[in-house]
Amino acid sequence: MRRAWLLVSLLAVLLGACGYHLSGQGPARFAGVQRLAVELLENRTTEPLIEVYLTNALRDEFARRPDYELVDTGDLADAVLQGRVHSYQEGAVAYSPTDAITEYRIALLADVQLMRADGQEILWQGQVSWQEEYRVNPDRAAQDVAERQAQQELCRRLASEIFNRIVDDF
Q: Would you indicate the residue range of the signal peptide (predicted)?
């Protein structure tokens, strides 16, 4: 019994003030942010529609969370998520024995910030990147579909990373 009490006391001391919190709880400074507007991101790349894919993925990511209500405009929101897609790169990463490309990697870099709707306070900002691979298809139409699917998956994963960083305050 004494040993169990000692173990409980030791755990209380070790975990008491170390900043432990449940994942996804978010920092206290986001109190009052319930309605969120996600603006169309700015595209500074030559890749068409990549900003639309990422914006839609961000909206979907926040819409799945019960703590946030998505609204269409900043005047209805407590906070606004905005940003820029700075870089989109595509390169070959795998080759066949005959030196033909068999797999591509795409990478995306974006700057995102979450601001109070009145513009007076930046709640979070960060630069986030992600990459995704996809296999080559000899049929050009199927290749385009595979690339578009990889872009959309890349944007879904990047949106999830952005959400996690915002609520975990990294």
A: none
